[in-house]
Amino acid sequence: MIRSINTLLVPIPTIRAHKLACTVMNEQVLVLVHIQTEDGYEGWGEATTIGGLSYAEESPHSIKTNIDTYFTPLLMKEKPTSTAKAMQLLSTHISGNRFAKCAIETALLDIEGKRLNLPISELIGGRVRDCIEVAWTLASGNTDTDIAEAHQMIEKRRHRIFKLKIGSNPILDDVAHVLAIKQALPDCRITVDVNQAWTELEAMKGISLLQDGGVDLIEQPVSMRNKSALKRLAEHFDVAIMADEVVQDPYNAFQLAADHCADVFAVKINQAGGLKAACLIGQMAHLAGIELYGGTMLEGPIGTAASAHVFSTYPSLNFDTELFGPLLLIEDILAQPLDYQNFGLTIPTGAGLGIEVDNDKVYHYARQANLSSSNPISLGTYVSDSHTGV
Ligand SMILES: O=C(O)C[C@H]1C=CC(=O)O1
Ligand SMILES: [Mn+2]
Fold this sequence. Notes:
A seven-stranded parallel sheet has the order 5-6-7-8-9-10-11. Strands 1, 2, 3 and 14 form a four-stranded antiparallel sheet that branches. Strands 4-13-12 form a three-stranded antiparallel sheet, with no helix packed on it. Helix 2 (83-93) packs antiparallel against helix 3, helix 5 (143-155) runs parallel beside helix 6 (171-184) and helix 9 runs parallel beside helix 11. It has two domains: 2-118 and 356-378, Enolase-like, domain 1; 122-346, Alpha-Beta Barrel (TIM Barrel). The radius of gyration is 20 Å and the shape is globular. The chain is α/β, with parallel strands linked by helices. The chain contains 13 helices and 14 strands. The site of manganese (II) ion (MN) has 6 residues, from loops. Residues 144-240 form the Mandelate racemase/muconate lactonizing enzyme C-terminal domain.
């Protein structure tokens, strides 16, 4: 039986500015859910998003408000006796709010795993791999800085796949930036994420130049609203085209898979609405012959561990993952950091998420952020962006 549900906003600075087409991040606001049960178990979940409301439809504050106002009273009143029943209850009474649902499901699975002494991977289908390769995003905004950062990552054997965030500069400038990095790192896989910034016509031009320059993967080049453009681009080019923002819950992923709108799906547990939903999307994509990529909303270690459990169950993961979120933050909130080495992340083997959250640290940071009104939580720097019509 659930005794308490606490939702905490925990802002942590990033190691450097992280520039996307829709926002510039100097800190990440972790949205953490802590559930405690009457019989002494506790579980953690995470509903972190990117840049306030600039990336997705739920903001850190809306997630906290909605969990406190709607999710918690419902769960406390109905007292579901399993994670599956709790999620069924939430899906019946609460529409949308996929990030919030993901955090609740994660915390409940963490508890269920601890109760059964099994890692979450074994509760959601069973792992078929114990380690996953992790790409790093170069997004300092400067080509030479990005190249130097990539060399450091290779030297430390942390990453050898690099994703570049483009779309906020003129196309030819972005292409020149990407190709300079590709030439400096000829043995590395280089991918680009346009975060919806191009029109179809711009994408035709940009992708053609990137494909000729040897780029390996193009992520969400056009608006998520224009699924047919994404499909046309995937059909037109040999280079792999990946759907990201457009891949949401299993219903919409089903349509995308059935229409074969992209060569690869980036799956994110928060965008999907939870771990089981993300498993379902992975299975559907696989059945439709679509490749899989383990995506991130730049979560801290809780959401990252949860994602790793999900991706460990995928039948194939040919485009690897980008679960580097915790490494972008200056502080860790775990007693023992996640195990990144040899270009990969080891999937935790302990019960539940298999991690130990430093509760004192997390509650301390959350209190500090709430008390200090002169230091409000930053929600990213607004970047004017024409593709979303704002
Ligand atoms: O993929 C996205 O759009 C979001 C995120 C993932 C890595 C990164 O740098 O940003
Ligand atoms: Mn993306």
